[in-house]
Amino acid sequence: MTLRIGIIVGEASGDLLGAGLIQALKLRLSDVEFEGIAGPLMVKQGCKALYPSEKLAVMGLIGLKQYLELRAIRSELIRHFIENPPDLFIGIDAPDFNLGLELKLKQAGISTIHYVSPSVWAWRQYRLKKIARAVDMMLTLFPFEADYYHKHNVPVRFVGHPLAEMIPMVPNQVAARSELGLPVKGEMIALMPGSRVGEIEKLAGIFIQTAQLCKKQRRGLHFSVALATPETRKLFDEIKQVVAPDLAITIIDGNSRRLMEAADVVLAASGTVTLEALLLKRPIVVAYKLAPLTYWLARRLLRVPYYSLPNLLTGSPVVEEYIQERATPEHLCRGVLRFFDHPEIVTDLKNRFTEVHNALKKGANERASDAAIELLNST
What we know:
Layout: E1 3-8, H1 12-28, E2 32-38, H2 40-44, E3 48-52, H3 64-83, E4 88-92, H4 95-107, E5 112-115, H5 127-134, E6 137-140, H6 143-151, E7 156-158, H7 162-166, H8 173-180, E8 188-192, H9 197-217, E9 222-227, H10 230-243, E10 249-253, H11 256-262, E11 265-269, H12 272-279, E12 284-288, H13 292-301, H14 309-314, E13 320-323, H15 329-341, H16 343-360, H17 364-378
């Protein structure tokens, strides 16, 4: 008898997770079909796309028309899966869309998995009650997330992070520099001001001024920046022309991970990029700025002691975080240059990051498929 698995993803990161999980399940199950909302990698693995994943990539601040479209899509998927019940449903990330759908399906007797925990451990803890009602199993990328669910008696499995499999344990700086056309010798700082226009607007000027200060104190430094889109590149160029038109900064289109591998130190906006820098064993200085009202609210809602993933994963302030008014060129410059002045700090940091890399490298696709098969066998 053919097993049917419903699966829904939103952004590209979910497509990567979904494709890896589908591939692992197909190796374990002889006759299985997948359908739902899928990205191109999942479709390539044989998943039938009822809707393309781009439909969910608009989650966040959206207009009324988009909201109504998403609500209609979710209602149609609920109807479809209840009328044609799969043996298992897996929602990957996109919690604002998936959790409500999972709740309806579980109430209809369909087993559900949610893959990638929302940051309920950090803020909006009230969502935990809905998660407990909506999912039979939560799959987490990080061990501290699993600890949180264990404490609240929600079935959970820590599976590890796929990036820990993709990024080599020992980075190759020389090869990365050669590939990107950067100087093979000399000290280099990678500037990672963010992938969104709003982040560039808030951080690019500060990062460029930081580079100026660092250059004055350490003349041989080379600076490179990775920019995700033509729009963010244009904006960065405009800001640089105002702030420091004569400062040499090599611009790399995309390829942020390879740029960090090429660098000696990374100056980054808080986000997933800091996890990549950690896995590449690169010293990091983290900065972030929010709109004043957003920051005021975040300060009151957050329930964790740190902002950046490296600190959350190590459980200690191994990475300096400069948030809001503390994100000044003077602070960031001091934070960056201390790595060049104190190589023993770099050595200790690399050892800590290697421990985290090993902890996250668990074969996420296989462990996620283990959990899915376990749930299939229990129903």
